[in-house]
Amino acid sequence: MMDILQLEGVSKHFGSLQVLREVTFSVPEGSIFGLIGKNGAGKTTLMKLVLGFLRADAGEIRVCGEPVRYGNARTNRLIGYLPDVPAFYGYMTPVEYLRFCGQIAGMPPARIREHSKELLELVGLGSVNRKIRGFSRGMKQRLGIAQALLGEPHLLICDEPTSALDPVGRKEILDILSLAGKQTAVLFSTHVLSDVERICDRIAVLDDGKIALQGPLEEIRGCHRQDAVRIQLFDAPPDGFFDLFRQMPFVSAVSAEEDTVTLRLADAKQDGANVLNFLLREQLPILKYEVLEPTLEDVFMEAVQ
Ligand SMILES: Nc1ncnc2c1ncn2[C@@H]1O[C@H](COP(=O)(O)OP(=O)(O)OP(=O)(O)O)[C@@H](O)[C@H]1O
């Protein structure tokens, strides 16, 4: 699979502040890539480097195999960009705005008309003929995505597209990015882990300028799988009963609370069956049995500590 974006050993400082330290990762074709980091972690700086708006101190950035050149980034024809605070001409309607953007980019008028219509449908602004001035923040973000997709980019870059939106607006944006991801690779930054869990297939965690963790989301979860099970009984067992689990060799941790116990196991499948058998033998009916998935939050906290 071709890499749409490659960063290799990219570093950047401002004065005495080292913002990025030898950042290396790539975004393959067809990927929706979540760049996770706290405020100030360097996400915006990284995106500006990819767009050639800033000059890297070291390292190389390639878009579809072409090196990015500072100040003269021909590679930007391959990229659609949604900045964190997009600016629009408030007196235009969405259709007028996209026409204006298409004209600047030198697209043929028929193509602009046709493609604008599709894109405005995609972002849920197909029937909105009002001026942009009165748009909500979410509507502006959606129009921004339509604009970024107008040139049919190979890579769509969105800087914190969901921050400052309410849960409904946030879901709308994620759904749109998910759809856009069928046509183009997507790189978006966020500090919201649930956004990433919803739509990304790959992630990188940026912490203190370094990539603390990266890879396919499934793989990352797999590696950090805790193999824990939570069991709830119909009734609280006799005092101290759950402590019996501590003596079992395959149980590495026990936490108990009234009728519920959480066990860390070497292997959820095999050891889980042993635990269940034990409870049956002791004639303690089970209300609920659950294998716990590590949340991205757990994984993230482990990576950035
Ligand atoms: N032009 C600049 N000159 C000096 N310092 C800068 C400049 N641009 C960014 N910084 C600093 O670099 C650090 C990283 O900023 P950046 O905007 O890349 O972070 P971010 O992860 O995008 O954070 P946020 O989510 O707050 O936008 C911050 O400490 C910021 O103050």
TrEMBL record:
<dbReference type="Pfam" id="PF00005">
    <property type="entry name" value="ABC_tran"/>
</dbReference>
<dbReference type="InterPro" id="IPR003593">
    <property type="entry name" value="AAA+_ATPase"/>
</dbReference>
<keyword id="KW-0813">Transport</keyword>
<feature type="domain" description="ABC transporter">
    <location>
        <begin position="5"/>
        <end position="233"/>
    </location>
</feature>
<protein>
    <submittedName>
        <fullName>ABC transporter related protein</fullName>
    </submittedName>
</protein>
<keyword id="KW-0067">ATP-binding</keyword>
<dbReference type="InterPro" id="IPR025302">
    <property type="entry name" value="DrrA1/2-like_C"/>
</dbReference>
<dbReference type="InterPro" id="IPR003439">
    <property type="entry name" value="ABC_transporter-like_ATP-bd"/>
</dbReference>
<dbReference type="GO" id="GO:0016887">
    <property type="term" value="F:ATP hydrolysis activity"/>
</dbReference>
<keyword id="KW-0547">Nucleotide-binding</keyword>
<dbReference type="Pfam" id="PF13732">
    <property type="entry name" value="DrrA1-3_C"/>
</dbReference>
<dbReference type="GO" id="GO:0005524">
    <property type="term" value="F:ATP binding"/>
</dbReference>
<dbReference type="InterPro" id="IPR027417">
    <property type="entry name" value="P-loop_NTPase"/>
</dbReference>
<comment type="similarity">
    <text>Belongs to the ABC transporter superfamily.</text>
</comment>
